[in-house]
Amino acid sequence: MAAAMLSSHPNLMPNVTAPAATAGSARLLLLLRRRRHGRPQAVRSIHRPDPSDPFPGTLGTSRVDWKASCAFLSRKAAAGPGSSSDNPLSPSGDPPAADPEPDDDDDGKGGNHRLSAAINGVRTVAAGALDLVPISNLPRPLTIADLSPAPMHGSRLRVAYQGVPGAYSEAAAGKAYPNCEAIPCDQFEVAFQAVELWIADRAVLPVENSLGGSIHRNYDLLLRHRLHIVGEVQLPVHHCLLALPGVRKEYLTRVMSHPQALAQCELTLTRLGLNVTREAFDDTAGAAEHVANNGLRDTAAIASARAAELYGLQVLADGIQDDSSNVTRFVMLAREPIIPRTDRPFKTSIVFAHDREGTSVLFKVLSAFAFRDISLTKIESRPHRHRPIRLVDDANVGTAKHFEYMFYVDFEASMADTRAQNALAEIQEFTSFLRVLGSYPMDMTPWGAPSSSSSSTNPPPPPPSSSAPPSS
């Protein structure tokens, strides 16, 4: 067959000599014999275009013949012995006469003529349908679903949070994604990496507290990593003073907890008459676990009531936060953004920087929102890590004049809203850097509502989509 293809299709292998073609035809006939005897072999075809062809990519006669040859070889390899594919139709539509089985001592010349006639028979069919090479047996490419399933909300999502079981972040993860599989992480950055490495599907991390203010570490990590904010959840904080069973408040000499929890309970601890030292710990539930595991009878921990249940501690005082309206805002992070909508209240978070001197750029940014009646809910400045100080260019060359900042802004509008799109398009004209961190549904749950994982009146946002919100 190779000899027949070579004689009738000079553009297939122009540099092959006659002995090489004879050897190739003998190998091809041996391959077809093995296929008929139940030993399938892979069939490969190589198309080498003629360098002298002025239109190597066109569908000329040689390419049609090459397609016909590939189609015939693929049908021969895929069909079993005695199937209809062994007897292709002739140009007139009638099946040709069946060829006798070649003998083992056949020199291959007769087989070449028979195969050449068969190719001529299918050439007209292949010319009308050039895509006859079957691809159903090719391996299916991997998709995101093969690497890690992205279940719908309500099923078993894997949600990363910072802390140990009993932390407020775990309660926020349960409120955001009921019945999820919570994955504790010892650091905030580990939670980011868990989502990026497909260990977790989502991450729920705190960004600000109504009393303690912003959590700057997570704002810096939002800029460093490429995760998207897909939702928010606001969790009321209810602190308790925990100690080992049988311990009285008069015996305490030390109180351990997260630094913000200690600051949020400072006045209440003084009112209780406790003459104790304050010791900072990584997180509230971690402090409760440390007291329980080490049997510290002179130490109390400030944590949640759930932490007391998990680690076998008693509650010496309940609700010891100085302000009853103590709420922490968490953001939900995912690898892909969600599609913004306009049928419910949305919030959008952005970060931008400018390289121009003076405060007029920040004023222009705020004016872009004010002119379109878009309310800002937060503005936060963080030092520009790559260029923290700007130097003057006048007589005082070399002295620091201004600090450089990155600005984080949250505003109440969806990226599907034309007002938000126009505002960002205007902001992009006089900023050196602009990035949309996410456009997501607002948490409209009343702060006085229960915060358990089983009672969330705010439905979670729709699953992430591959369509990213516009950034300008």
TrEMBL record:
- Enzyme nomenclature, EC number: 4.2.1.91
| Protein name, per record | Arogenate dehydratase
Query: What are the BP-aspect GO terms?
Result: L-phenylalanine biosynthetic process
Top-tier EC class: lyase
Is Signal a UniProt keyword of this protein?
no
Superkingdom field? Eukaryota
Q: Does the keyword tRNA-binding apply?
A: no
What InterPro entries does the database record attribute to this sequence?
ACT-like_dom_sf, ACT_dom, Preph_deHydtase, Preph_deHydtase_CS
Q: What does this protein do?
A: Converts the prephenate produced from the shikimate-chorismate pathway into phenylalanine.
Catalysed reaction(s)?
L-arogenate + H(+) = L-phenylalanine + CO2 + H2O
Q: Which GO terms describe its cellular component?
A: chloroplast stroma
Q: What pathway annotation does it carry?
A: Amino-acid biosynthesis; L-phenylalanine biosynthesis; L-phenylalanine from L-arogenate: step 1/1
Name the Gene3D superfamilies for this protein: 3.30.70.260, Periplasmic binding protein-like II
Q: Where is the Prephenate dehydratase domain?
A: 158-335
* Location in the cell: Plastid, Chloroplast stroma
Primary subcellular site in the record, as a coarse category: plastid
Q: Specify the ACT domain's residue ranges.
A: 350-441
- What ranges does the record list as Pro residues composition bias? 458-472
Provide the residue span(s) of the region labelled Disordered.
39-60, 77-115, 447-472
**Record-linked PANTHER family:** PREPHENATE DEHYDRATASE P PROTEIN (PTHR21022), PREPHENATE DEHYDRATASE-RELATED (PTHR21022:SF19)
Molecular function as annotated in GO = arogenate dehydratase activity; prephenate dehydratase activity
UniProt entry keywords in alphabetical sequence: Amino-acid biosynthesis, Aromatic amino acid biosynthesis, Chloroplast, Lyase, Phenylalanine biosynthesis, Plastid, Transit peptide
